Amino acid sequence: IKNADQKNIYYGFAGVLVVVFLLDYFIIMRPQLATMNKLTPQINELEGNIERTETNLLRMGEYRKQIKDFETKIAELEFQLTTRSGIPLVLEKISRIANENNVKINQIMPRSNEQEVLLEKDDRVYYDLPIQIEARSQYHDFGRFLNQIESDPAFFKANAFIISQLQGSTDNTIKLILSTIVYEKEAKKSDEKK
């Protein structure tokens, strides 16, 4: 009987321990495990974000250097652009390049009514300005002229051209549409509207 009572005490104690463990699992541990399962993807995402942030912070000096390089390039490119008041200088430059390449210009005129707004930034508006040219030249001279025009830092681009042979001559008639980028300040634009 003593053995039976002691066995019952152990069984009772084991039963109480099982009940305590089950209550602990279902009441305390299970909600915590569910919360941890929900947080695991968020923790992984945060770890990835922290890693990317650390990498970006390490590259901050490199990014600043790139920004300065871009600002320098933008300043150089803006220096090459022409203001709207500088259009006569652009026409003169085209004429000078034509003369250097034996291209005889009969007519050159900007087509301001066909210009397109490319960008409005800060206090400037940038336009794509077409320039119509009618000229005469030999085929190879025109090729050199076109190459020099498109290589010029003033951003000339040949949009379209027609070449036709002049009868009884080695020259060709050329109709050419060039484009260049010009800008004007917003203040001037608003003054013109008044």
Question: What does this molecule look like?
Answer:
Helices cover 58% and strands 27% of the residues. The protein is α+β, with helices and mostly antiparallel strands and 194 residues long. Strands 1, 2, 3, 4, 5 and 6 form a six-stranded mixed beta sheet that branches. The chain folds into two domains: 1-58; 82-193, Ribosomal protein S6/Translation elongation factor EF1B (Alpha-Beta Plaits, 2-Layer Sandwich). The longest helix has 57 residues, at 2-58. Strand 3 (116-121) and strand 4 form a beta hairpin. Helix 3 packs across helix 4 (139-151). The protein has helices spanning 2-58, 60-80, 87-100, 139-151, 186-193; strands at residues 82-83, 104-110, 116-121, 124-137, 157-165, 172-185. The model has no long low-confidence stretch (mean pLDDT 84).
Sum this structure up briefly.
58% of the residues lie in helices and 27% in strands.
Q: What number is the mean pLDDT?
A: 84
Calculate Rg over CA atoms: 39 Å
Major sheet size, sense and barrel closure:
6 strands, mixed
What's the end-to-end separation, in Å? 116 Å
How large is the share of residues in beta strands? 25-35%
Uncertain regions spanning at least 5 consecutive residues: none
Summarize the helix and strand pattern as letters: HHEHEEEHEEH
The chain-level structural class is alpha+beta
Give me the CATH fold name of the largest domain.
Answer: Alpha-Beta Plaits
Helical fraction: 55-70%
Summary keywords:
2 domains, alpha+beta, 194 residues, Alpha-Beta Plaits
